[in-house]
Each structure stands twice: as structure tokens, then as C-alpha cells.
Structures
1.
Amino acid sequence: MPPSDVADAGGGAGPDSSGLDGAGRFARDWAAAAARLGYLRPSVAETTDVLYRHTQRLAAAVRAPSFSDQIGRDVGRGLVEGHLTDPAVLDWSVRALSERFLPLVLPDLVDSPSARERISHLQGALAEGFSRALRHRTFDQQSSIRRAAWTARDAAEQALRDSEARFRAVFTGAALGIGIADLDGRMIEVNQAFADLLGYSVDELRDVDVGALFHPDDASGTRQLYSELIKGKHDSVRMENRYFRRDGSSVWTDLAVSLIRHDDGRPRFTVAMVEDITDRYEMQERLRFQAEHDPLTGLPNRTLFFDRLSRALAAPDEPDRRIGLCFLDLDGFKSINDGLGHDVGDQLLTVVARRLADCVAGPGHLVARMGGDEFVILVDRCAGTPQVTAVAQTALTAVGAPIHIGDHQLTVSASVGVVMSPAAGNTPTEVMKAADTTLYWAKAEGRGRWALFDPVRAAHHVTRSALAAALPAALDRGEFVVEYQPITRLPDGTITAVEALVRWQHPELGRLGPDRFIGLAEETGLIVRLGRWVLERSCRQANDWRVNFPRQPIAVSVNLSARQVSDPQIVGTVAGVLTRTGLPADLLQLELTESALMAPGGEPLRALRRLAGLGVRLAIDDFGTGYSNLAYLRRLPIHVLKLAGPFVEGMRAAGPDGDRDERIVDALVRLAHALDLTVTAEAVETRQQATRLVALGCDQAQGRYFGGPVPPAEITALLAAGPVVPDGSAGPDGPAAGAR
Ligand code: C2E
Ligand code: CA
Ligand code: CA
């Protein structure tokens, strides 16, 4: 125990030059050592304050009447709590206690043995307090780290449990099929939706090989993607493919497969999400079918046809590939449609479509409806011209068989343009243009037949549209001329009139007959201007003849198309022409076809009455080719009936056909006469026909037998030669044989 002789030892070292007492100086040195030897968390000043207090407490302990080393332990602990935990600090502190404490802080006790003894006790206690505090502190720190670690682990586990629960909820409850498979393609787990989609139970699918479910049509592609995924080439793949259901039906799916990897990146398993898109897929298919097929006939439409044609033509890997094409158009379909109604027309098209599809259903053959009454047959990888012309002939035969629709038995024919073309270097547009041109040839050659494309001929062929486009300028440039064909009185053969017939003197194509351009002019509306020009030109001509040959007045007969008759200005036009040319109205005859007279709306009838009111004569042209409604004709202000060529032509034939046509002409002449109409026979080509017409009481005749259409100068020459002497019959040479 420390001796008590130091107990009341007072005083101490007085303040030095720095103003510090001994304890202050000891504390200052202590703090400086601490700063030097270890890291000082608080500032040096704060540490000095703390150490000063420790110094005073140690001093108090040395002087205390009864000694306790507890102060030493407290100071040791205090050092640790003041973060002076470095062992070097402890070392310094213990040594400083024995070497400097008494001289500096308690100089009066330097020689006191009991003070020295107390100091050594305090040294041990300080070391012990320090060590114990340090141990506690380390333990505390470790346990708080451990605690923190435990807390963290709990949180992580909870999060995992949460996400697991969420995954479960999604997995089991999802409407989307979810399946997890290992890298060998074995199903590890599937959810209910996945099993439902394929028609199995969840258990049945466990361990099943994924590949076994693939639809064979998609299997190779699907397997390929799957294996790339498993090798880690992709992190996910997405595809639309089919699977077999348990009942053998197939299901269309939208499939997304993701690869799940180990922490180190190695592929671990795959997760597939599958949606049943069968309904959507079928809807898409239906829409696609509708977009590519004609609703009336169910045939592929032009979109699909052009698609196939383009693909067939763009086949660079098959240099020898050839395609054949038949472009088919029904003959006279418009008149069936107009005459019997669109219902019948539609049914007719449906029958034709079915027959075509049935008769040319070879591999690589596509039958499509281009629109209206146009069909097309594509013969891909065509073996040669004989193959495609055979297809055309088969199609013509199929279409030509009688068709029964309701009470109607119809016989239709078709025309076909046939093209054989190498696939390489041809565009769909070129091929179709060739087919169109060839179809036109087939029509021009008499319909009901096929024509084969010929590039040399095509080079000279001018399309209808090109002609139509050139018409207006041709009229302005004066490329049209009028020829005149005599109309003679029977039986004496006197020329009583001429029919004006227009021709186009085309600068490149030569002389074109009206059949090449009147239809076009009607379609484009130019006929109104062209017709007005013909009318004026022929009235002027007729008036010249009247003035120059006053003893042989001849009328001029001018054709009016339906479009002109329904032109609101027609009456004014005719009246104006008569006034300008000086031709008396009774020397003008206008020829109208039955269809022009039948035009709806009653307007033509009003116009006809007013034209008749001018004193102009009206003739019905081509009588017998249209409706031939005589009862209706009675109501019209008509003067002349022109019997159509085919009747007169028929009279030429010997036997029953000729007899029948003759009886028809006989009846028509009688009927016409009963209605006070003059009858003119057209297209009289032989003496025999002329003789019979005389016998039947026909009034007038026109045709090559009496003279074809000629330039006006030839008519002038005829008139100048004087009237033909009537001999009471049509002579063997023909009354106007010299006209041609
Ligand atoms: P269309 O009015 O029936 O004219 C008679 C046609 O028969 C003319 O044909 C004439 O050349 C032809 N022909 C003359 N003699 C005979 C014969 O003995 N046998 C045969 N088979 N035919 C004969 P073209 O000149 O080719 O005229 C054809 C059609 O063009 C005309 O038929 C007429 O409908 C129309 N057309 C001609 N010129 C005009 C016109 O100025 N205006 C209008 N709107 N149509 C015209
Ligand atoms: Ca005519
Ligand atoms: Ca005619």
C-alpha cells in the first residue's frame, strides 16, 4: 500500500515561462507524444485538456491520504475512450509516469519513496485499465459489425423470400404460359397456362423434351434458335411458331425465351413465355386472304397475281425459267350485263371463274381475276409455247360450253392474248403490255380465239390508248377525210343519196377505218367535235353537188353516234350547219343506231322530234342487230330503215339459212312499209342479192355491188357522167359498176 507520509504533501511546480504549471506541462508533452505516436481523433487542444485532467487526478491519487490505484485504471480506460488506443501511447504514458511525473507535477515528492511506490502502482493499474478498455472496445466493435451483418442478412433473405413469392404469384397466376427448361431442353417446371395451352396437365409436362412439342413445319428453325440461345449466343429470342397440342391440333404462339445464367456467366436454364396467338394469326390469315382474293369469284385477285408474276420474273438463280401468260377477256360481256342485269352478269363471271380454275389447275398455274370480265392464267416454269397455247385453248373450250343461269341459257366466247416470255430481263409491266396487245389482236381477228404474241408485229402495233391520245391533235391538223358511198334506188339503180363515212389519214399508220377510232372517240367524248366536223364537211360537199348538178339532187346521209344524239346542242348544231352550208334540210339524212334511240331519259326523243321538225330525214342504221322493237319505232319520227348487213349477207346462202334470212327480210320490208318507212338494204355485194331485194320490194340499196365508199371527186365524176339510164332491173354489171 502507498505510504501515508505523502498524504498532505501540498504545492507543486509553479508556473514556468509558458505560464503553465507542472501538470499543464506534463499534459502538453503527453498530448504531443500521443499526436506523434498515434492518430488523434479529437484536436490536440481537446486531447491536452483531457490529459490535463488525467494528470491532476493522478497527482491527486499520489497525494491522497489513503491510496487507491483505481485512478490508474480509470485513466487507462480514459485513454482508450479518448481514442488514444495505440500501444505506443500506453508505453509512453507508463514510462512518463516513472520518469517525468514527479519532477514535473509533484517536484516536492521526487525523493518520497511512498510517492514512488504509489506511482508504480498507478503505472500497473493504468496499463491494466487501458488493456481492458481496449479489449472491450474491440469486442464491442466486432459485435456491432456482427449485429449489422446479421441484420443485413435478414433483410436479404426477406427480399429473396418476397421476390420468390412474387415470382410464384406471377408464375402460377399468369395468363401467359411460362416454362422453365434445363440446357438439355427438359422441362423443369411449367405453369398452368403453359399446360393449358398445349392441352396437358402441369405434371405431364415435367421432364418432357421441349423439342418434341415443336410443329414439324417450324421444328428446324425453332431448334436452331434454341441451340444458339443455350450456347449463349443470344440472351433471348422471340419467334412466332406452332406447337402440337395433345389432341393433335396445332396452336400458333408468340414465344419469348430468355437465358438465365450462373453468377459467373455460364448458361444455367431457359425461361420461355408463350402466348396463344392462334386467333390473331387466323384473323391475319383471313385478312390476307381477303386482300388477295376477289370476293365475287373467290379467285386470286390482281394483287396476288402481280405478286406471283413479279416473283416468277425475279429469279436470278434460274436463268432458263420461262413464264407463259394467257390474258382472257369475255366477248360481249357488256351486252349481257346491260341486257340481262348485273345479277346474271355476276353469276356468269362466277361460273366462268370456276371453269377456268378447274380446267387449268396444273402445278405452277395460277388463275386470277384481273377485274371486270378479264381473267389471267399464269403458267410458271413454262415448258414452251405449245404448253401455253394448249392452256389457252382449254380455257376457250371451257368458257364456250353453254351456261345456264336461271331461265337463261347463255353461250359466251372469249378472246385470249397468249405470251411466252423468258423470266430473265422482263418486268411485269412489259409482260402485261404484251398480253394486252395480243388480246387486242385476238379480238380484232374475230374474237372467240387466242392470238400469240409476236414481237415484230408488236413493234408496229399502236395501242388503243396511244390512238385515243392522238385523236384531238389529228382533228386539229386536218388528218380526217370523208368518203361517200352511193345509195341507189331500186329497181332502177339511180343514185339518190350518198353515205358519208369518215377515215383517218394517219401520218405513220396510213389510212385507218372508222372501226379503229370511232369507238375511241366515243369513249373520250371527242366524237361530238369529230361528228360536227364530218357533218359540216359532208353538208358543204352535198350542197356543192346540188349547186353543180341541179337536175340530179342527191341527199347526204351522215352517221350520228349515241353520244352526239344526247348532246344537248345537237339540234342547234344541225340547224347551224344547214344555214352555214346552204344545204336544204330535206337533202340531209341522219343515221342513228337503235341503241342511240333507246338511250334513257327521253331527251333523245325530244331532240329527234325537233330534228325532224327542221325537215331533216332520220334513218335507223343497222336495223336488226339490236332490239328491233318495231312497236317503239312507231312512236319515233323515223323515215328510213337501213337493214343490217348480216340479213342481206344471209340471203346469199343457198338452202334453209338463206331462205330464212330471205323470209325475215320479206317480213321486215312489209312491216316497214306498213309503218310508212323507206327500206334501204346495206352491204349488197352480188347481183343475186340485188335481184332478190328488188323482188321483195326493198326500196333502196347500198353496197359494193353498187359501189363502195369513194373520195368525193369520184361521186362528182359519176354525177357529171349523167344519170344512169334505168333499165328496170339491176343489170349484170351493176348500175354503178364504174364507181369503183
Ligand atoms: P355503217 O354506218 O354501217 O357503214 C357502212 C359500213 O359498211 C362502212 O364501213 C362501209 O364501208 C361498209 N360497206 C360498204 N359496202 C359494203 C359491202 O358491200 N359489204 C360490207 N360487208 N360492208 C360494206 P366503214 O366505212 O368501215 O364504217 C364502219 C362504221 O363506222 C359505220 O358503219 C359507222 O357506224 C361508223 N362510221 C363511219 N363514219 C362515221 C361517222 O362519220 N360518224 C359516226 N358516228 N360513225 C361513223
Ligand atoms: Ca351508217
Ligand atoms: Ca349500217
2.
Amino acid sequence: MSKKVKDFGIEKTLKNLGIKDENKGTSTGGKYFASGTTIESYSPVDGNLIAKVKTSGASDYDKVLEAAQNAFKEFRLIPAPKRGEIVRQLGQKLRQYKNDLGKLVSYEMGKSLQEGLGEVQEMIDICDFAVGVSRQLHGYTMHSERPGHRMYEQYHPLGVVGIITAFNFPVAVWSWNTALAWICGNVTIWKPSEKTPLCAIACQNIMNEVLKENNLPEGISSVLVADHEIGQKLVDDKRVALISFTGSTRVGRMVSANVAQRFGKSILELGGNNAIIITQDADINMSIIGAVFGAVGTAGQRCTSTRRLIIHESVYDEVKNRLVKAYGQLKIGNPLDESNHVGPLIDTDAVNMYQEAIKKGKKEGAKFIVEGEVLKGKGYESGCYVKPCIAEVKNSYEIVQHETFAPILYLIKYKTLEEAIAIQNDVPQGLSSAIMTQNLREAELFLSHAGSDCGIANVNIGTSGAEIGGAFGGEKETGGGRESGSDVWKYYMRRQTNTINYTTNLPLAQGIKFDL
Ligand code: NAD
């Protein structure tokens, strides 16, 4: 470990979370093993090597699948509220490890410390939520059309749930899925992003403590730190009942087709291209805060990041000038330093994509009113820090139709709200959307059938940041999946309709007679 890593107090954090200089990336519970190649996790904060991880090989994969299948036979028999108790204990552990885990998220992924801690808080919240749901996995009871019959629906666990996650929420997405999957009686196998392997090992270590303290079998919670090839194996594996995939639309399209091909179930949480409509009746102060946080928070690397502002012509110049001023005040630097607003992108590949997008935008006619730039010099040695930028564009530009995972904000002018809603919906993705207005008519139209086509539609709140209590996800190329709150637990179970005849006759449904 380099000296610089020690300077941020990261060494202690890693130790507390059980991360060593060299780690094994496969675990089914108590112990770790791995037979694959080694990956190195570098921090985008300072470019230093944090630790190495030996990835999961093909033979590890089979061991994990076998352990999961065996564990399922046992775990499904534990009553749901008792499974909820396991999740409650995970929530308690996460409270204990919140500072360390939040700091690791910030250091390995690059989001601000506050956002890292916020992500762990979401994990705690979903655990609390899931504990309650573990006592409410209820189905309908309906009246049978036949006398002396009872009819009802019940939900059963699915089996092995595969969770494939993106780098930008390296811990929370795991917990959104696992907390619900477990209370429903499933066992889980996690294939985290290879860009944030240490966050995954830390989570598994925390869960391993819970499993050990409760004397539970290996295989209830497993992790496979590996590249896309192991991810692909999971996707294609008939033994995996549900694939919950969070990542790009490009990969999600393939995942969706392959899982459907084998009649598996999938939850798809893919890319967004989120817009805020700022109307002539908007509170401009609130709009500026919402827009700037949405566009530059997590350096524009949230699936819900604000990418487009659709602004009424009467307030366009005011919003534009105030945005330029606000961007001039942004502090870009080490995300562990709370005085900074913007941290680094995940890696230099992401920096290249940011530069490419700017180039492409300019070629199509985008007029940059705040120029982008890759930052160099002291504090920016990792090469991952970029300047958030703003461009005036047409919604039809190819680059505007595309999700660039970087802090590039596009401004578009409109005349009527109907036109603004049409612009907002005229992209392939459908994740998050917002309107800033104090006018009830505008707000209600935006939320109506003729309004936003997204999975999330907000009024006087930006596009980014969702509470775990609601179902989270989006439409169109965002994949149609839902995660976390509301009745999302149903995605992790199979529904069964039961009819019981307590008479001495066998009447057939639909009045059919079949006399022998
Ligand atoms: P990515 O698609 O590159 O990778 C996501 C995961 O898929 C990684 O674990 C990766 O190893 C795995 N993977 C890659 N190829 C695979 C294959 N052939 N088979 C199986 N797994 C494979 O995405 P990323 O760059 O890590 O994350 C950014 C993207 O994720 C953005 O598009 C963002 O919008 C999206 N995202 C969406 C949500 C949501 O809830 N809608 C949340 C977070 C991120």
C-alpha cells in the first residue's frame, strides 16, 4: 500500500472492513477462495492502488452455484419473519460499519463522502423496510364459483437470484436486491462491477458476520468478483431463476434477450436520460439548486443524473445566466474533502467518453456556454477529474439522445408545456423526470397520462435521489424493472393460485359436465 493511501486514513478503513492488500474474490459465506486472474483496484481520487483481488474462475462459479442451490433448500423453510430477523441484523451491522463503508465507497468509486455515507444509509433503510415486509408477503383470497371450494393466491420464493451491478452504486444496489430477495426466501449470488471490487468484498464480509452469528449455511449470500464473462455465465445459467441487472442499456439489451431465451425472470435497471422542465411559473432558486445538484452530483454518474434542462423561453436567459454563475463557483477535487462539490469520474476511459461526447456535440452544433476540460496538476494526478460543462442544444442531436455518464448538461428552449413534455419524452430512455413549477395545472398535466413517460416523475424536486420506499426504475430502454420499495418484493417470488375442494363432489369450472 502506498504512503498516499495512508494519508487519507483509508488504511484503517480497509482494516476495519477486512480488506487486505491481496484478496480473494469468491465467497459463499464464511471463507474466501478464487482461482481466476488478478485485478487491481485503483482509486480515481488519487490514482493509487488500493488493493488487489483474485477474481472468480469457472471452477469457483460452479462451487458457488452448488452452495447456493443447497442453501436454498434450507433457507426457504425458515419462516419469512425469521428471515426478516437476519435482514434486521444486517441493518444493525451496517449502522456499525456506516462510516467505514461510506468512506470506502467514496475512495474506490469517487463519489463524495456525503454521498458514500448516503448510499450506506439507503442500505440501512432498505433493511428496515424489508423487515416489515417479511411479515406481509400476502396474496389475495377470492371467492370460488364452485360451492364448497376455497381459492387463494400465495407467493413462493424463486430460488437462486443473480445480482449483477454497476460501478456507480457499488453497495446500495446489492442491498436493494438482497434485502428483499432474502426475506422472500431466496439465496443470492452477486456479480459486482469489476471497477469496485473492494466495496463488494466489504459487504460480503459484513454479511458473513451475520450468517456466522446465526449459524446459517454457506450459500445464502455469495459474491463472485469477476469480469463480464462470469456475469454472462450467470445470465445464461438455467439454475438462476432471476437475474437482477443494473447497468448500461447496451449490456442490458443482451441480458434481457438471453434470460428471456431460457424463460428466466429479469429485473432490468438500465440507463437514463433525465430532464427537468423549468416553466415560467417555476421557483428559479429551487430550480437552479435542483439542476446543478442533479447534473454535477456524483460527477454526473448517477442513472438519475440530470442531463437535459427544458426551459421556458421567458425564463431561459435568467436560468442560463444563473447556471453559468453557479458552475463558476463549483469546487472540483478530492471527494473525501467535504468542501468540494465535484469528485472524479470512475476512470480514464470515462474521461475519454466525456471528451468524445463534447467533441461529438460540437460537431452536431452544440454551443458550449461553460466549456468542459480535463483537469491537470496538483490534486488531479489520477487523471479522472473533469470540469462540469453546459451546452445549448437541440433535443434531436444524436449525442443528446444518448446517455453520457459524465457531467454534461444540455439546455433546450420551449414555448408551450405540451411541447416541453414532448421533448422530455422524445429520448429512448425513460427513467427519471421532473417539473419545476408553482402552477397546479402544469404540475398535474406533467403527472397525467399525457405527461411524463418515465418511471419517476417529480414536482419541484430534481431528477436524482430517490427514497427506498417507492418502486424504483424506468420505462423504455431503461428496461422496465422496479427495485426497492412498494410491492417490488413480488418480483422476487413466484405466484401460485390454489383451489381447495372440501366437498365430496368434483364440480368442474365454467359449469362443464363430465359424466363417467
Ligand atoms: P455496464 O453495463 O458496463 O456494467 C454493469 C455490470 O454488467 C458490470 O458488473 C459488468 O461486469 C457486467 N457485465 C458487462 N458485460 C456483461 C455481460 N456480457 N454479461 C453479464 N454481465 C455483464 O455498466 P456500468 O458502466 O458499470 O454502469 C453505468 C450504467 O449503469 C449507466 O448506464 C447507468 O445509467 C446504469 N445504471 C442504472 C441504474 C438504474 O437503476 N436504472 C442504476 C445504476 C446504474
3.
Amino acid sequence: MGLLSEGRPLKWTEIKDALKQIRTYGVDQLIQVYHKCKNRQRDAFTWGDEVELTLVRFDHENKKVQLLLKAHKLLPALHKLNEEIQDEACRIAWHPEACDFVVEGVPFQPYGFLPSHFNTVEANMRLRREQVQKLLAEQSDCDFILNIAAFPRYGQGEYTHPAIEYGSSHSVEESLCFPDSLISPIHPRTKSLSENTHERRQGKASVNIPIFKDSSTPSPFRDNLFKDDPNLKDDHIHLDSTAAGWGCCCLQVTFQAESFEGSLRLYDQLIPLCPIMLCLSAACPIWRGYLSDVDCRWNIISAAADDRTAVERQQENILSRYGPTPFYLTDEKRHLNDLDFPVCDDVVQKLISQGIPETLSRHFGHLFVRDPLVIIEEFLHPKDDSNSYHFENLNSLVWNTLRLKPPPLDDDLMGWRVEFRPMDIQMTDFGNAALTVFVALMTRVILTYNLDFAIPISQVNENMNRAHHRDSARQEKFYFRCGNEISEMYMNEIINGNNDFPGLVPLTRQYIGEREDIDADTRFTIEQYLLLVSKRAAGTLMTNASWIRQFVLSHASYKQDSVVTEEIQYDLVRKMEQISNGHEDCPQIRQSNMETHTDLHAE
Ligand code: ADP
Ligand code: MG
Ligand code: MG
Ligand code: MG
């Protein structure tokens, strides 16, 4: 959700005039947060996931499926519905998203430290879809809420219901195929974000995704809609708007650490897991109606959300603000920060002088290199010291694979949290719960056994790139640490082990085996999730991306030309709907005996 606020968003020129002042406010607020919260101890292990869901409408007669622009109408009804639910375990917190065909659902209360909470995740995710589906069904039996990481023909042809007008005059970013009417009318900051990103960048967004070259794909392949765009590259699918990225859906998990120091350690150990989990979650092989050579969304949003000017893009060491995590945070791991990203020196010095450890000060010093792309006028000049708006605003406008979330000044209950952000959304609740619970368990396993998987940032970034490659879960090797050695390992070795390394799933099984406080149902459910992760890494089950790709390649009307037609999309999304609602099995992505004992209520 990021930071949502009502009020008038400032224009980019207005923000530009106030940048220095805004930065000073933000740094001072961060210092205040640090002094107030640095000694928090023994905060509970609470945690929660965020699921982004896509609204679609089927037109069965014409074999079409389109994105349904209806989130702004559904959200007030969803809020009302949940206000009336007494049992908190059955309540969902719904948030608007950037695009009006997406809603975000999170558990109303974060999950607690009891192991039985692992068993509630899937039921909670199912409830989210059921709540929306029920409202949709009151109006039409053609409307569905689905987990789709990137809608296959997003940006191609007439892809929305209701129909909207396309063309550069319908877009502040001058996009040819992503008009402003995609943007949620009730998300106060997205419109301003896309305007200000466009103005700051001084030019159009440019995303080039390598096409999957099939036997009848033209060579070179040229995305004809963009034939006059100087940014178009041969053999690439092209996207030209930030909305191309904001329309993708992800799965995020936030963990509260027991203390400030604990949050830094947790963050550092989650860094090497980001590319691993991105690879396992891969679910995006199709872009703008073409099969691509990538399997995940991350680098695509990264390019779409990039607000750097042409000059800044020439400077190698500043990346898109949507990018991999640039630094380890603890002094102990600073030797692994082997990429030289710029920092605001004055900010770093000021933070160090306030007692903030040097490595962490550099992380924040890099954060403050970024401009706040959205500012709400009413919050520009703080009236008192009661909140940390400017720090949180900036922190929520930089989209790294991990986010350190310090406690907000105006919430005494909240502790230091780390958000895990790389994963693509999965087609099924089972898949989303499995990955969520696996990451949550990994945090416990790493801390309990004092494991250390940290490798240099440059190798983590290389792993991020490899994770995007077609079928990376089976084909790629990734840098991974076992003991004092870093070697390149297949996903199967990382997850299931080899002669030198026990494997992340066996380590998790050991941890589960040693804990005596886990009830039988939770144990059973967790084992199904571990099986999914294990088999995906072993290649005996497919990633969502591989399955989607195979569906297209084997479709009767596919012409070996990389084109995903309306008809193929209709059949694919229909199939996804049947699978996610349990009407059809899909043994390539989930064995039919992988049933869980999930329950909305923790013991
Ligand atoms: P954002 O979009 O900024 O990441 P959201 O409010 O959408 O923030 O999601 C925050 C996530 O953090 C949710 O999954 C929520 O359950 C979880 N969460 C909220 N409070 C806590 C807490 N005290 N400890 C751990 N997780 C929390
Ligand atoms: Mg959110
Ligand atoms: Mg979101
Ligand atoms: Mg989030």
C-alpha cells in the first residue's frame, strides 16, 4: 500500500523547490525515531503478508478476458463488510493499489509468534479471494478475482472493461498503450507519482524485454506500435509507462524483529534469499501479448519505475529506485558491500554523529540520494514532532527487494520490521501460502541455528539477474555460501542439499522436528509447503512461469511466433481461474495429494 494520504499532491516543480527542506525534515525525523526506538527489546515475532489480486471479466461468447477496472467501487464495500465482522481472524484489511484492476489484501491483524499461525496463512488468503468474489458475483457471473502476476496482454489491443481510450494524448506519460484511466481514482498518490516520475526523468519510460524467439518469430522482431520510439530495441517487447510496472502483482512478507539490532541482522540474512525466492516464485513469462525470455516481473518494474534522467542513467553506480537491495546493514557485514553506490555525505556524517552505526548510516545516506516523488501539501511543513511523515514517505518511495521499516513516530506499538519484497504472486492460495510460510520459517531457522548465507552484494545482484532467465529454477546456477566457501549451485542443491550443504528445506525440517510446540495440523500443513518448495527446486514441479509458458507453447492455435492471442489468453486465464478455485487439478504445479489442514484460527 505504501503511505496513503488524502490531500493535494504537490507538482514536481513545487517539490523541487522544497527538496532541501524536505530532506532536512526527513533526516531529523529519522534521528528522532532512532533515539526513541533504538533500545526497544523483546518485541514479539509478528508478521504478515500482502497479496495483490487482479480483477478480470470474461467474455465467453467472444473468447476474451479483460482487466476489470472496478477496484474503486469494490473497496468501500469491502471496508464496510469487514467493519461488520466481529471475529478478527475473519477480517481482512483491503488497500487500493496503483491500477484500478488491482486490490491489495492483508490480514487484519498481523500473525503472531505461535507456530499455529503458520497454519492460518492459506485460509486467510482464501478468505480474501472469497470476500471479493462474493461481491463480484452479486453483479455478474463473468467477473473474477485472480492471482495473476502480470496479465498476459496488458498493454495490447483492447484489454480493459469498461473500454478506455488509448494513445499518447490520454496519458501524462505520453504512453501509447497505458492511458491514465488505468490509474486508481481512489489512490491519492499514484497519479502524482506517474506525473512526477515522468517530469523528473524528462522523458518516457522505456522497458525492453527480450522476446522468446520461436521458429516463426520474425527476425528481427520489432514491436510495431513503437516503431517511431527511439527507445525501441530489436528483438525486444517494449513497454512505455510506469503503469506497465504498477500493474504487476507481487507477494510481500513483513517481519517484526525483537529489537533494532535484530532487525539489521534479519535484513542482512534475507538479502541472499531474495534472488532465490524470486526464482522459485517466477510467474511472468508473457508481456504485452508476447512470450518473452524472462520469467519474473522484478527487472521490468525496475525499468518502468525508473525516475533517473538520461544523464543519471549514464552514471553506472546509481540504479533505478526500484532495484535490488544496495547494502548490508550491520557493520559486521560491511565488507560484503562491494558496490560503490552514492550517498549524501552530509546525511551520513549527521547520522553517525547521532550514534547511528556507520554501515546503517550509509544505507540511509543512499536513501536520501533519492528525491521524494510525491508530497502531500498538507504534510509539507510538519506542525509538530509527532510523526515521521517525511522519512516514511521517502522510505516507501524506494522499492528495494528488502525494506527496513523503522517504527513510525506516532505508533508506540510498532517495532523494527523488515519487509521481504521480491516474489511474484502465485496462481493459487496454496502456492502463495507455501512461499510466505517458507520465508517466515527461514527467518526462524537462520536465527535459531545462527546460519550465515551472506555473499557480496555484487553476487546477489548477479543472482537477481539469473533468476529472471527462462526456467532459471532448473537451468541456472546461483552464488551461494556454504560454510566459508561461496560456490555456484543449482536451485536443487540450495533447496534440497548436496554433499557439502544440507539444503534449506532439510534445515527447515530439522527445525520443525526439534520444536515440540507445533500442533499436528500445523506440522502437516508446513510439510506440504516444504514439499512444494522442494519439488519446484528439484524440477519435478514447475514454476508458475514454466507452466504458463508450456500452456501457450502447446495451445492448438499457437503459431510458433511468440504471439499470445486473445484466444490463448482466454483459455489460459480461464484455466488459471479453474485451478485457483479448486475446480481443476494441475499436477504440473501441485501434486493432487498436497492438501493442507489450514484454518483461519490459530490454536
Ligand atoms: P506496505 O504496503 O507499506 O508494505 P501494508 O500495511 O500494506 O504496508 O502491509 C504491512 C504488512 O505488515 C502486513 O502484512 C501486516 O500484516 C504486517 N504488519 C503490520 N503490523 C505489523 C507488526 N507490528 N509486525 C509485523 N508485521 C506487521
Ligand atoms: Mg501494502
Ligand atoms: Mg502493494
Ligand atoms: Mg508492502
